[in-house]
Task: structure prediction
Amino acid sequence: MGQGWILSGQAGDLTAARDRCITTRDLIRRRTGLAMNLLSHLECSLCHREFEADRLWNLCPTCHKPLLARYDLKKARQTITREEIARREATLWRYRELLPVRDLRYRLCLGEGWTPLIHATRLGEAVGFPTLYIKDEGLNPTGSFKARGLAVALSRARELGVQAVSIPSAGNAAGALSAYASLAGMQAYVFMPRDVPPLFVTECQMLGARVTLVDGLIHDCGQAAAREARKYGRFDLSTLKEPYRLEGKKTMGYELAEQMDWTLPEVIIYPTGGGTGLVGMAKAFDEMEELGWIGPRRPRMVVVQAEGCAPIVQAFHQGGEFAQPWENARTIADGLRVPVAVGDFLILRAVRASRGTAMAVPDAEMIEAARLMGHTQGILPCPEGAATLAAFLHLRRQGWIAEGERVVLFNTGSGLKYTHLYGENR
Result:
């Protein structure tokens, strides 16, 4: 569980890796080009206008809000079962009928998904809470949960004829885009803040992407990427500005249910920048209920942000439907340094519907939580993942989390990319 594919770097090995990501029956369907999934249409998340699925879209052209992929779940309920899913390959493509790629020849796979859900017993002993779990997304290709969204989004873009893609990123999304674009034979253009750690720049360049460093934050990178996308005809894969990164991220919700024997925990604590993963999991839970795989009970969802950039936390506690842009955003957790999120209202809806909450934690507590997780559980988290443990400790002291509740912390990336932060705090 949670093992990635090992590639030697030769061209034949890439084909072999893709083939290991699918079953024999799938190989037959791959050769015939048979449609596998049940994607029916796209729906605007705000105005609910519907759009045909088999053409390229970014935001809703009417209200400029995110589009959501919809599936024929009645047919899915008749044709796929939890038992069949359990026999499939240990990647996110095990849920293929509920993902948007129709033709198996276009699917890109580096072994993403099916990351381990770890019962954190030693960490639980250290904090006096035995029912603590960690979903470790750092074991994905390129070292973060971004591999999920970009694997699916690039596969669908490739299927729809895209040749060049661009993305604004604080680092991990750029690396994932670069990897899957390389695998697909696409040209990748990434836009990152100039102060991004050099490791991320090198990663993208070694994977064949063209890197542009931008003075400013992630939204400034987004503006630069959008300008060049319009000018040169590239497809913009910004967070929630196309429908399919969300579909890759939602597989965290499917996996969590399956790994907990088709039940859900009482609490999920999730680090939130653009919020695609949290919104995606909420979507997955709704789909699974309609499929008859789970009941109506939902986990309480906790948004975690940094004290130096907490627009969603502020909007949640002020009762806002949308978040106001955060001025002078500052935090060591680059993935949380998102002053404006296009899906802010979707994040807030998901948290409120689950009876959850939102919390901001200081950078210093992220460092301490990373050390605690590493010393007790053998997991070196990214600062964003460490923020979930810091938030847990606050919520536990406040009594918001009760004894015996199952709590899942999401570590969204490997801490190995952040030794420049941790090395100074040994």
Observations:
- Confidence is low (pLDDT under 50) at residues 1-20.
- Residues 276-291 form the longest helix (16 residues).
- The radius of gyration is 20 Å.
- The domain at 146-236 is CATH 3.40.50.1100 (Rossmann fold).
